[in-house]
Predict the 3D structure of the following.
Amino acid sequence: MITTLQQQVNTMLLQQQGSKVEVARPQVFSGKIEEVSVFINAACLYIRIKMTEEAAATQVAWVLSYMQGGVAEAWKDNLLDKLAKGELEVELVEQLFIKIRNDFGETSEKERKIEQLRTIEQGGRTCNEYVQEFKKVARGSSYEGRPLIEEFKRGLNRSIRRKLAKAEELPTTIREWQERVVRLDRNQRQSRVEERIMGRNAAHPRENAQLRERGSYGGRGGQITWRTGNGYRRGGNVTNRGGAQIDPRRDPNAMDVDRGREGDKTCYVCGK
């Protein structure tokens, strides 16, 4: 009996003192995840000190009045509409706090994984990099079987998906899909490198032909390249150091020992 009376006296004293204490009101809540706990704690503290005598309906309405702007305001309007139609009952403000925390609070690890799984894309990464990231995200998402395979395919680049669509026999497990795309992506990237090399060769066919078929005088089978004292000269009329034109099929630097064998005979000693 004495204990009960003492508790009642303490409660009355706390209420009388509480009414004189200045308590900060909660900030307006717009629905941001990082503001959920701060808003609920501030509202709960204010109600316990300043509004303990108020009816539960009044406390609920007071909390809802601080939900303004953003998603929170639309959420509040929907809640009030359901309350008016009798589709939902919130008898205590604690029930309202639980609902706010569930609807606006931080999502669970599983839900976060699922959200990442539904939005992950390959982008500029190789298929091997995409596969490793996908495995990391999929772990703990509870996705498996066909739903997991479909999310994996969705995140692939379009070029890879097109290649896979042409395959006669498609993989059946997520592991087989991942191994197939890694192998396909590696082959496709190697093919692009080879095409670039072939493209450069096609842009300079003569020079490449000379490099492949180079003979004793700098090349054959294409434009002839002569090595001279001042560098190289390709094709056209070639002259020796005296200015006389020579056969472009011959090396202009070779000794002209056959010149005296044709036409008039000239002595190399006296010039007659």
Summary: The chain has eleven helices and four strands. The CA atoms of residues 22 and 50 lie 9 Å apart. Confidence is low (pLDDT under 50) at residues 1-6, 12-18, 215-227. The radius of gyration is 44 Å.
